[in-house]
Amino acid sequence: MNLISTIIFSVCDYVFDKSSEGTFSLPLLPPSLPKSPTIEEAFNQSTNATFPSNIQCIYTFVAGPGQRVKLEFDEFSLAGSSENCQIEYVDIYSELKSPDFNVLSSALAGRYCGSIAPQIRISLYNILVIVFHSRSHTQKRRFLFRGRYSFISDAKYRIGRPIDSQPCSFIVDSSIKERGELYSPTYPGSYPQSFFCSYLLRGRKGQRIHVQFPDFDVFFGGEHCPYDSVTIFDGPTSSYPIIKKLCGLQQKVELYSFGHELLIHFNTTRPAKTDPRGFVMEYKFTSDFVNLIDLLDGQEGVTHIRGTECDLRVQSNRETTHYIKSPNYPNAYPVNTTCTYVIDGLQGEQHLEKAILKFESIAVINSEGIESTAPSSPDDITCPSAWVGVAITESNMRAVMSSTDESVFDYTLCERIPANSPLLGPYISEGPRMTVQFGSTNVPSDNLSPLGFKAQIDFKTDFGIDGEELGHSNECMFRFTGSAGFFNSPRYPANYPLDANCTYLIVGQPKQEILIYFEQFALANEENKKCADWVKIYDVYRDSNGKENLVLQHRYCGGSFPGPVVSSFGVHEMRVIFNSDSDEAANGFKAFYLIRKSRAEDVPTKFDDKSSSTRCGGVIDASIVGVTGSITSPNFPVKYAKNEQCYWLIKARENHKILLRVNEMEIEGEMKPSGIQCQNAVIRVNGEEYCGTELHPILPILSNNNTLRISFITNPEKVNGLQGFNFTWTEVKVVEEQHCSTEDLYLCTYSKLCISSTLRCNGDVNCGYGVVDDTDEQHCERKENSADMTVLIAGMVCALMFTALVLFFCFVFKKKLERKKKSKRHSESARRQREPYRQQKPLHRAHAGEYVKLHFP
C-alpha cells in the first residue's frame, strides 16, 4: 500500500457530531491532514491506491436533542449488484437510540452495493450509523461513496400529543391547530420496516375533516395492500368503517370524514427494494363542509358514500320512493362544491328495477341578479358556474364516477326552470342505475327562493320489455299498437324471474290481422313437471259493448318452438300470456309481430291447388269434388317461399267425417318427444302443429265433425324452403254397427269406417285409422286375377315381339356374312392373275447422272 492509502486508512471509524452539516466519504481524509485539495487530488490520481482487505468502517452520525440525521448520497460505486452484495456493501442503521449499538441485534434499515446509491435517509431518532464492509483488495481511482449530511429539527414529525410514548402515534386536536401537515416517520427518507403508526385527528362537534396526500409512496404488495398500507377509519377507533386502504404510488387522493374524528393507521412489514419514502398528508378541520345530516334527511336507503364531501347513494328497498336535494336547500348552496348522487335500483336473479327521476324544482343560477329562465331544450343549455347533470347511459355514468372534472351528462340543467317545464322530467334510467351530479363554482342569486334543486326518485320494476306499460308499477303488462315490433320475456336474454306472469296486448284496427313469429324460445323444461312454464296465445273478440272474450289459439311449453301464428279471421287484437313457476328459469323468448291488412276471406272460396300466391288454399266440398282428393303446399314439389299463408277447409256430407293421410312432407323443423319445433314453417290441422321430414310420427287424422281445417304458414322474413307437403283426404263415416247404412258404402273391418265402395281396390289404403286396416285393398281377387291375366298376355306379346326381333337380326347378320366371304374369294383370285414374272438376273443399276423411270401398275 502506498503512503497515501496508509495515511487514509490509519483511521477508518469516524463520528460526525461537531457540525450540523457537512460531507462524508469513503475513504475519509483524517482530520489531522490539512484541508487541502492537493491531498484529495493526489488520492484520486494515484493508480496504485489499494484498499486493504477484510476491513470494516463505521461512520456514526450523532445529532443533538430534538434533531434527526439526514443523509444524501451523491456518489456510490461498490462491487457487486443489488441482488448480490457479497464483496463490498454498506449497511445503514437509522432506528438507533444510542451510538453504542450491537450490529447483530439492531434493526438493519438496508444493505446496498453496486452503483445504485441509497435514497435519502432520515433517522427515526437522533442517531444514524453506516457501516462499510469489504472482503478483498480493490484498486480504486476515486471514492467508494460520498455524500452530505445534516442535522434537522424533528418538530414536523411531532404533530400532536404522543400516545403511550410511541415514536409516531399522536392525537391531532383542532383546538390546537385546525390545519397542517402530517409526515410519515422518516419522510422523505425510506420509512422503517415492521413499524406501526397511529394518528387520531379530533375536531369539535359540527366539524368535518378533509385530508389529501400531495405525495404518497408506500410499497405496493397487491390489490388489497396485504403488506405496507395506510388505512383511514371514519371514526376514532379501528372498529369504525374503513374509508380507504392505500398503498403504492397515489396521486390526488382526497378524503372527507363523516363526523368530527378520523383515525389513520400506517403499517409496514418487510423492507422494500425500492426504498419507498412514505407520505405527506395535509389536513383541515372546518364546519364549512356540507352538513350530511341535513342532506340525508333521515331517509332509509339514502347513505353517504364514505370519503366524499357530499356524495350519496340512494338504494331501493323494492318499489320505494326517495328524495335528493342540493346542499342547504332551499337556501343558497355552497361555493366550489360537487355532490354526486348514485341511484341504484334492485338488480338480481329475482328483481330488476329502473329509476325514475322527477325534479320538484331547479334553481341553479348562472347570472347574477337576473331572473333567468332555462331554455326549452336541454341541448341549448350551457351552465358555466353551476349545474345539475343527469347521466343515464353506461359510458356517461362511468365518466361521472371516475372524474368529476371530466363528467359527461345525458342532460345538463341549470337556471330557474318553471314548474310546468318538461325539463323537470321524468328521466328514466336505461338499467338499474342512474347518476345525478350537482356542481357549483360560485353562487350568484336571482333574489328568489328556493335555490338549488330537489327531486323525487321512484324505483319501478324493470321487466326489460319495450311497450306501453299498463297496470301498477310491479305488474308485467304491456300494450303494443305499432304496425311492427317485438316483445320478449322479462329481462331477456337473461333468465326470466321465477313466479313471473306477463301479459302482452297486441292491438290493431278493424280490418287488420296480426302475425306473430318467434326468434327465440327457451322455457324451462322440468322432468317431473309437465308444462310448468308456458306461453299462451289468445284471440280477443269484443262485442258491441266492448266486452272482451278470449279464445285460446295455442299453448307452448319448454322443449317446443312455436311456429308463426296469425289471428283468426275478423280478429284484430291478440293477447299473449307468459307464466313461470317457482322452480327453474331459462332465457325465455323473443317474438316479433306484424299488424297488416286482413285477408278478404277466412278461407278462399275458390280452391286452387296450384296457387303460388302468399294467400292460397280454398274450400273443398266432398259433395262436389268427390269423396277423396289431395292438397299440396304452394309450388309443390318445388320449394315453398317465405310469407306463405294458406288455408283449406274440407267439407264432408252430413254425418260424415274427413280422414287425412300424409303422403309426402318436407317442412323445416322437428317433431321431438319433448316438443314440436316448427319455428319458420308450420302445418296446422285443427290446431295441432306438424313439421319436419319424418312421416312415421304422423298417424292418419280423423276430423271431429264433417269439416277439417288445414293451414300452412311460413315466416315472413326467412325460410330454408324445402319441398313442402302432399296430403290425401277421404270422406268417411264412423259406425258402431257391423254394416254400413247403404250399399254404396264399404265397411272397413277393423277401423269401423264406412268409405265409398268406389274406393275399394284403388291402390290407396283408405281404411287405416287408429289401427292397421287395409281391408279395402284385400278383397280384390277378381280384379287381381284380371289384372294378372292382363299382365300375362302383355308379357307373352312382348316375348313374341322380342323373339321376332332377334330372328330378324340373325337373318340380316347371316346374309351380311355370306356377302363378305364371297367378296373375299373374288379379291384373292384377281391378285393371282396380276402377279408379274420375276427375272433371275439383277436389274440394271443406274449410274450417276442417269434417271430411273418407275412404272406403277
From TrEMBL:
Q: Where are the transmembrane segments?
A: 789-813
Give me the stretches of Basic and acidic residues compositional bias.
826-838
Which key words are in the record? Answer: Disulfide bond, Membrane, Transmembrane, Transmembrane helix
Q: Which domain of life is it from?
A: Eukaryota
State if Membrane is listed as a keyword: yes
Q: Where is the CUB domain?
A: 12-152, 168-286, 310-460, 476-596, 616-732
Which named protein is this? CUB domain-containing protein
Keyword Secreted attached: no
SMART domains named among the record's database cross-references? CUB (SM00042), LDLa (SM00192)
Q: Which Pfam families match?
A: CUB
Q: Name one GO cellular component term.
A: plasma membrane
Chain positions covered by the region annotation Disordered? 823-848
Q: Which SUPFAM superfamilies match?
A: Spermadhesin, CUB domain
